[in-house]
Specification:
Elements (H helix, E strand, L loop, with lengths): L4 E7 L1 E2 L2 H4 L7 E6 L2 E7 L4 H4 L2 E6 L4 E4 L1 E6 L1 H7 L3 E2 L6 H14 L3 E7 L22 E6 L4 E4 L1 H7 L12 E4 L5 E6 L1 H8 L7 H17 L2 E6 L7 H11 L5 E4 L9 H9 L8 E3 L2 E4 L28 H13 L4 E5 L2 H12 L9 E4 L5 H10 L2 E4 L1 H7 L7 H11 L5 H6 L4 E3 L10 H10 L19 H7 L2 H6 L15 E4 L8 H4 L4 E6 L2 E5 L2 E4 L1
Parallel strand pairs: 1-5, 2-6, 7-14, 8-9, 9-10, 14-15, 15-16, 17-18, 18-19, 19-20, 20-21
Antiparallel strand pairs: 1-3, 3-4, 5-25, 6-22, 10-11, 11-13, 12-13, 22-23, 23-24
Helix pairs in contact: 3-7, 7-8, 11-12, 13-16
Bound molecules: zinc ion.
């Protein structure tokens, strides 16, 4: 027991592992020193610690949990992907068109939008009809909600020199109509990149400011750690360094750069080389891969084509090269996590991971959107964890299957959507996340969606496969300890010797109505022993 401690936090309920296991959550304290939890106990026992604490934070009757972790975020890519008007709440094409027209009035040379759900186009493919309310010569570019596709105006296509279909090194494509004229719809990164690289860029300082605001926003919803799963922005490390030159990152960040489809051993060697690069709160660790794209864009890898005859192949034109990439990193002790959405893609990744020698390197899979029983068993046998995004299910699909995702899959495969409960009950470690900016990063809404299988605050919406809902303690565990387990590290619980990551809410996620919990206040976050967000009554000694 250290003589003096950095921090003593008092709360009305402290959600220790025994509280998550069903014991009554008692009022208590957590003592923190040197980035670690050094004491946990009941409120009565706090007095002996109080005198030795540099700082005491009394949260009254609030609930203290292990720190929330978002297992899947794109904060730096999100700077560019969230430029312009937020279209994520547009429910009709008309609404989206009007929002863009309003944005155009104050916009510069380019009109930007993001977060658009392709469901606004109904049964037809997304196209530059989106810009019908803008003058035809207007430069406009809108990212779709899944961040895998975009729509460019005719003027933007012209400036980018896009005049028809093009061939790429991966399965990206430029949609064209019957005459071969581009419709404005661009699928996957190589195609969207044809336009993003001619878009005027933000200055480094503008990007740094935007990034701090993104991290700050995450912290204010309770997030203490995030895993960034991309390397699309070459200035990312410089941005982190620039932020840390002036202060701290508001959350701890693990960066797992991407070995892109089609990459070769020389690329993998570079990614292996930068493992361990770090600042104070960020570190490069692990590798992200992608076996397929998305159901919505017809770029997932399914056993049988979707109802439009698409989603038939891996993003890797030669899937054995994906296997070689995973083996390359595994042999060097580098953890991987692979985006796998379609049933064949998930199967291929699970089989690949199953084939690795069991050396304790933790591997994970992302998304797992449509999962047949036999592939679920393969994941169990592979002994890997999964990272899932409950809000992708609740925000982008509908129980009646009238959404694009479900229509493309058909009833049978749509009824295997986001099987969080089945995976958990089979013993697979589940880590929750948002995939921001694909879905909002608010951890309270993610937890509520995991428990409700519909968006928080929308009792009018029919839940999607409600038997896949997670019970509150399981959901909270998956949004805290689940990530730590998925990366093979000890943490994510409130106990002596654990790393000090904490989040406090004004409501208890184990007992509150999930809709009400989604609007609870975040009162405190502690990141590696340091207080980051503090909306409590602070008692300074
Ligand atoms: Zn992602």
């Amino acid at each position: 027991m250290p003589e003096n401690i950095d921090l003593l936090v008092l709360a009305g309920a402290v959600l220790t592992p025994s509280a998550l296991a069903g014991a009554p959550a008692e009022a208590g304290f957590v003592a923190v020193h040197d980035g670690q939890i050094v004491g946990v106990g009941t409120r009565d026992a706090a007095d002996s610690w109080r005198a030795r604490a540099q700082r005491v934070i009394d949260l009254g009757d609030a609930t203290l949990t292990a720190g929330i972790v978002d297992a899947h975020i794109h904060p730096v890519a999100g700077i560019g992907m969230t430029r312009g008007v937020d279209l994520s709440t547009a429910e009709t094409l008309d609404e989206a068109q009007r929002a863009l027209a309003a944005e155009a009035r104050d916009a510069g040379e380019w009109v930007f939008g993001w977060g658009l759900n392709p469901n606004v186009f109904g049964a037809v493919a997304p196209s530059a009809r989106l810009f019908d309310l803008l003058p035809p010569d207007r430069l406009a570019f809108v990212q779709l909600f899944d961040a895998h596709s975009a729509i460019a105006s005719a003027a933007a296509l012209e400036r980018a020199g896009i005049t028809g279909a093009e061939t790429f090194d991966d399965s990206s494509s430029i949609a064209v109509d019957a005459d071969g004229t581009p419709t404005g719809y661009l699928l996957e990164h190589s195609a969207t990149g044809r336009v993003t690289r001619i878009v005027p860029s933000l200055t480094f300082d503008e990007r740094r400011e935007a990034l701090v605001a993104i991290f700050r926003g995450m912290a204010e919803t309770g997030v203490t750690i995030g895993q960034m799963l991309d390397s699309s922005d070459p200035d990312a490390f410089d941005l982190f360094d620039a932020i840390e030159a002036e202060g701290e990152l508001p959350i701890r960040l693990r960066v797992s750069p991407m070995a892109v489809p089609g990459s070769a051993e020389s690329d993998w060697a570079r990614l292996a080389d930068i493992q361990g690069r770090h600042g104070r709160r960020w570190e490069v660790r692990g590798i992200k891969l992608m076996i397929d794209g998305t159901i919505d864009n017809g770029t997932a890898w399914l056993r049988e084509p979707d109802t439009l005859g698409e989603s038939t192949a891996s993003l890797w034109l030669s899937p054995p090269e994906y296997v070689a990439a995973v083996e390359y990193f595994h042999a060097r002790g580098i953890p991987t996590t692979t985006h796998a959405i379609g049933d064949r893609g998930i199967e291929f990744v699970a089989a690949t991971l199953n084939g690795l020698e069991r050396t304790g390197v933790p591997h994970r899979m992302e998304h797992i959107e449509t999962l047949p029983d036999d592939v679920l068993e393969l994941i169990v046998r592979a002994g890997v964890s999964v990272s899932m995004q409950p809000t992708h299910c609740t925000h982008f699909t509908r129980a009646d299957h009238t959404d694009n995702w479900s229509r493309r899959l058909g009833d049978e495969r749509a009824d295997r959507a986001w099987r969080t409960r089945d995976l958990h009950e089979k013993g697979v470690v589940v880590a929750l996340g948002s995939d921001w900016p694909v879905a909002p990063y608010d951890a309270r809404a993610t937890l509520a969606a995991a428990m409700l299988r519909r968006p928080a605050g929308r009792a009018d919406v029919t839940p999607v496969l409600p038997d896949q809902a997670l019970d509150a303690p399981v959901a909270l565990d998956a949004h805290t300890r689940g990530w730590w387990r998925s990366v093979g590290e000890s943490g994510g619980t409130i106990g002596e010797g654990m790393p000090a990551y904490l989040t406090a809410f004004s409501a208890n996620p184990l007992s509150a109505d999930p809709d009400a919990f989604a609007t609870a206040e975040v009162l405190l976050t502690v990141v590696g022993g340091d207080v980051e967000v503090d909306r409590s009554v602070v008692v300074q000694r």
